[in-house]
């Protein structure tokens, strides 16, 4: 570029030139063009204007500068010029005053260290869904995936919900039965979110509301039963509570999957009384069993006696059985004389009438 007395004259391409009372400035065509004077003045030269890429970036924009297909720089608000011909330049402008990112800008570019500072991101996991709010207004439901938006003054909120089956603990519930017996009940409930708009958009803290619904349904059912009736019908409480809560859960965008009672804990005095009742019941059962066994044994002896009375051979066998049992407990027996051995044993073991 040739200047005379500080005024731009013309552009010279490669070659040898003789200058008289003029100054020449050489420029590297592989580097950006930094104008020595006001660029608008230089662009009045049609030849120079044709030799330059001029990129203007407004206040709400950035421009991605590519050299030979590779991202080289991110241009902010301003005016930039590059020489044509030697380097293959490409420029992609993006309006960062909006939140949506043009699909022509791929993920690799967004994650580039030069661009990432202009981008905000949010990940929705495979087991989640999310609601997308812009400046406080609901826009859409986000399915699982990774989302990118331009970072600017617009407020963006992503409200997520876990769509897997979850469990809440309903522990330490102090409840009075119909007959004023105080109990402490530990229970649990299983549920999952099926409508994220109802759960988050139309309700606040849906999990706490579900907890209260189960709590009230449990108290309602236990309060209608007496203590003894409660112990007899405790298996029917869970199905009732589950059915009772289903409609309320549906209004919260929730599907209840199960409810169960872990423990029914009695106060100390009630526990002692119940233990006494249990001991009494077991004693009564033991006495009844013993009486049945004694009756059966007596009946068996009576039947045996009747058979032995009618059958002398059976009587002899029974005598020998008793002799055998007694002999098991005697280490030795001395028999004297020339009498009958069996007769002498009979005299020892069988009392004489």
In short:
With 353 residues, the protein is α+β, with helices and mostly antiparallel strands. It has helices at 39-42, 46-51, 107-110, 196-201, 206-222, 227-232, 234-251, 268-310, 312-327, 341-349, and strands spanning 2-4, 7-10, 23-24, 32-33, 52-57, 61-67, 70-75, 78-83, 89-95, 119-124, 128-134, 137-142, 145-150, 156-162, 166-176, 182-193, 254-265.
Characterize the structure shown.
With 353 residues, this protein is α+β, with helices and mostly antiparallel strands. 37% of the residues lie in helices and 31% in strands. The protein has ten helices and 17 strands. It has helices spanning 39-42, 46-51, 107-110, 196-201, 206-222, 227-232, 234-251, 268-310, 312-327, 341-349; strands at 2-4, 7-10, 23-24, 32-33, 52-57, 61-67, 70-75, 78-83, 89-95, 119-124, 128-134, 137-142, 145-150, 156-162, 166-176, 182-193, 254-265. It has a three-stranded antiparallel β-sheet with strand order 2-1-3, with no helix packed on it. It has a three-stranded antiparallel β-sheet with strand order 4-8-5. It starts with a strand and ends with a helix.
């Amino acid at each position: 570029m040739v200047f005379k007395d500080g005024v731009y004259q013309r552009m010279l391409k490669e070659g040898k030139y003789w200058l008289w009372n003029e100054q020449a400035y050489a420029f590297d065509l592989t580097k950006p063009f930094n104008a020595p004077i006001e660029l608008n003045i230089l662009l009045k030269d049609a030849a120079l204007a044709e030799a330059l890429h001029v990129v203007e970036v407004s206040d709400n924009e950035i421009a991605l500068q590519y050299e030979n297909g590779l991202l080289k720089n991110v241009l902010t608000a301003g005016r930039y010029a590059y020489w044509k011909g030697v380097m293959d330049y490409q420029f992609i402008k993006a309006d960062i005053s909006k939140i949506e990112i043009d699909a022509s800008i791929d993920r690799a570019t967004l994650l580039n260290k030069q661009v990432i500072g202009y981008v905000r991101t949010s990940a929705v996991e495979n087991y989640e869904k999310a609601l997308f709010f812009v400046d406080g207004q609901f826009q859409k439901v986000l399915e699982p995936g990774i989302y990118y938006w331009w970072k600017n003054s617009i407020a963006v909120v992503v409200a997520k919900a876990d769509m897997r089956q979850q469990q809440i603990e309903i522990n330490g519930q102090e409840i009075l039965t119909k007959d004023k017996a105080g109990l402490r009940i530990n229970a649990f409930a299983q549920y999952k979110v099926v409508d994220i708009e109802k759960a988050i958009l139309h309700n606040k803290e849906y999990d706490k509301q579900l907890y209260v619904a189960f709590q009230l349904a449990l108290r309602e059912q236990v309060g209608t039963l007496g203590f003894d009736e409660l112990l007899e019908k405790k298996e029917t409480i869970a199905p009732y509570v589950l059915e009772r809560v289903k409609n309320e859960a549906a209004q919260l965008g929730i599907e209840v999957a199960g409810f169960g009672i872990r423990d029914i804990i009695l106060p100390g005095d009630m526990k002692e009384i119940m233990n006494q009742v249990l001991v009494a019941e077991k004693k009564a059962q033991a006495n009844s069993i013993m009486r049945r066994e004694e009756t059966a044994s007596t009946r068996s002896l009576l039947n045996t006696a009747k058979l032995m009375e009618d059958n002398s051979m059976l009587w002899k066998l029974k005598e020998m059985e008793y002799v055998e049992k007694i002999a098991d407990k005697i280490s030795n027996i001395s028999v004297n004389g020339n009498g009958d051995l069996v007769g002498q044993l009979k005299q020892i073991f069988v009392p004489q009438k």
